[in-house]
Amino acid sequence: MDSLKGSSVMGTGSSILSALQDIFSVTWLNRSKVEKHLQVISVLQWVLSFLVLGVACSVILMYTFCTDCWLIAALYFTWLAFDWNTPKKGGRRSQWVRNWAVWRYFRDYFPIQLVKTHNLLTTRNYIFGYHPHGIMGLGAFCNFSTEATEVSKKFPGIRPYLATLAGNFRMPVLREYLMSGGICPVNRDTIDYLLSKNGSGNAIVIVVGGAAESLSSMPGKNAVTLRNRKGFVKLALRHGADLVPTYSFGENEVYKQVIFEEGSWGRWVQKKFQKYIGFAPCIFHGRGLFSSDTWGLVPYSKPITTVVGEPITVPKLEHPTQKDIDLYHTMYMEALVKLFDNHKTKFGLPETEVLEVN
């Protein structure tokens, strides 16, 4: 009887232990799923902010004028009038916002990685040329407008400013969101201010290819629009800011889009938007919110690795000649191609892959 009782106790103990192991294994499984869902949600909220936040907030504020809460909208627009030029002076960077946990989930979804190849001197200013644009410049945002990839630790003393369309800063609420991450308008006044009146250690990140480059963004294609883009080089020469080539491997892999042929009605519409509004509407898709097998706005979870190259020392020339601009533009293109060739095989590209410079 005693032996039977002992066996019963041992059996019960084993059952309890087995049950506990099952619980912990299920809990771990659920935790993994929860983290994956949080990653998807963190990316989707940014995509929706990028696409509709500005317009949605504008509509809501205009509607508020017609309600009993009209004073709230009136106060905001009054303050907006006084604050209108703040984006041109570097905005209001918030380390708290840049360190939000949501950006770490954003980073891990793809994942996104920032690779440093050379040190940057805090006594100099820089213009980073970011390539390629992709559909939304996800790598540019994560690496330089948040601390998810620890840009401040990798480049201590350097303040990155991601430059984007000035029109975004005319949108209520969206402008505050952008400025908190260190995003600024990509126009001459802003860049002149940051490179001449904001001390040293500033790094202006310009997505050089812009809207034109986004129109050719597609998985498997490594192409940049650069050959006739020389304005950023002229700015660098006027301020003596060093040029830094930067390439994001995988940026073109996260969305698929419909590519309209030159001469088609679709490409005509895109170019008209690009000319008069500043951006080109793309017909693109990623995966669905709940399944990777459906279409939606969530980008595909493909690795994005942003490699920051060696800075090109640029002299300060108040009135650079076209010959000066062409010289440093050629040096920049050669440095970008070299950067691509030196790192392409590390990130899954064949040795025969060639960067197309248009």
Describe the structure.
The chain has helices at 2-64, 70-82, 95-98, 101-109, 138-144, 151-154, 174-180, 188-196, 210-214, 231-239, 265-276, 322-343, and strands at 112-116, 126-131, 159-164, 183-185, 202-207, 223-224, 242-249, 256-257, 284-287, 295-296, 304-308, 356-357. Helices cover 46% and strands 14% of the residues. A hairpin with a 7-residue loop joins strand 9 and strand 10. A seven-stranded mixed β-sheet has the order 1-11-7-2-5-3-4, sandwiched between helices. The chain has a three-stranded antiparallel β-sheet with strand order 8-9-10, with no helix packed on it. The chain has a two-stranded parallel sheet with strand order 6-12. The chain has one domain. The model is unreliable at 1-10 (pLDDT under 50). It has 358 residues and is α/β, with parallel strands linked by helices. Helix 1 packs across helix 2 and helix 1 (2-64) crosses helix 4. Keywords: Acyltransferase, Cytoplasm, Endoplasmic reticulum, Glycerol metabolism, Lipid biosynthesis, Lipid droplet, Lipid metabolism, Membrane, Transferase, Transmembrane, Transmembrane helix. Belongs to the diacylglycerol acyltransferase family. The chain crosses the membrane at residues 40-64. This is Acyltransferase.
